[in-house]
Design brief:
Blueprint (H helix, E strand, L loop, with lengths): L1 E2 L1 H9 L5 E7 H11 L5 H11 L1 E12 L5 H12 L2 E8 L11 H11 L5 E5 L6 H9 L3 E6 L10 H6 L2 E4 L4 H4 L13 H6 L5
Parallel strand pairs: 1-7, 2-3, 2-5, 3-4, 5-6, 6-7
């Protein structure tokens, strides 16, 4: 089910008595943000879900190239850590010959671990690699909502992932609530370089 903004608030109200964590695939979400052509303010995002749901935890997952001195991504990660997000990093080094890492193992393990304390999981992710996770969460009676985008010339979100999720929120429908304004600092939004360095694997 794809929801428009006019139905989104009613949808979130229906879960007001349920405990909900948010898990963010940083690479996938950064790519989706570029497709819809606006940047996410993670303070606004957390404030929005704190107001509209019973948010219990917020997780942000990303690979981190430790061989590069990238102050922008470190500012973002530091800000997230100091403002209530749990950051999960998969470190790697681009100056040695190794494949680029993905965060799907850490993402999946965390989701399954916290599922026992949650009724409804909100996943900001789009890769088909998460289909087995969503199916498992459904098997144990959890409601799963995927947030990504179906806009753009190439699909960011897997059709199979949308099919197995209980609900799908179009990222662009959250624009009014979580868009970063120009006056806000960069560490509260996406990092442009991140999307170019790491391609989401589906």
């Amino acid at each position: 089910m794809i929801m428009k903004w006019q139905h989104l608030m009613e949808f979130l109200d229906s879960f007001i008595q349920k405990t909900e964590p948010i898990l963010i695939d940083g690479v996938s979400t950064s790519t989706a943000s570029k497709v819809v052509d606006w940047m996410i303010d993670y303070k606004k995002m957390k404030d929005f879900f704190l107001k509209e749901t019973r948010l219990i935890k917020s997780y942000y997952f990303t690979p981190l190239d430790v061989s590069q001195d990238d102050s922008n991504i470190m500012k973002l990660l530091d800000w997230l850590s100091f403002n209530g997000y749990i950051t999960v990093l998969v470190e790697w080094e681009s100056d040695i010959k190794s494949s680029k890492p993905t965060i799907d193992v850490e993402f999946t393990v965390t989701a399954l671990k916290i599922a026992c304390k949650a009724d409804h999981l909100i996943l900001f992710a789009g890769g088909g690699k998460y289909v087995p996770l969503v199916k498992r969460l459904n098997d144990i009676g959890k409601t799963v909502t995927i947030c990504s985008t179906v806009k753009g010339p190439s699909r960011i979100v897997s059709d199979e992932l949308r099919k197995c999720a209980d609900n799908f929120i179009e990222l662009d429908d959250l624009r009014a609530a979580i868009e970063r304004s120009d006056k806000n600092n960069n560490h509260r939004g996406n990092h442009d370089k991140e999307g170019r360095l790491y391609q989401d694997r589906r």
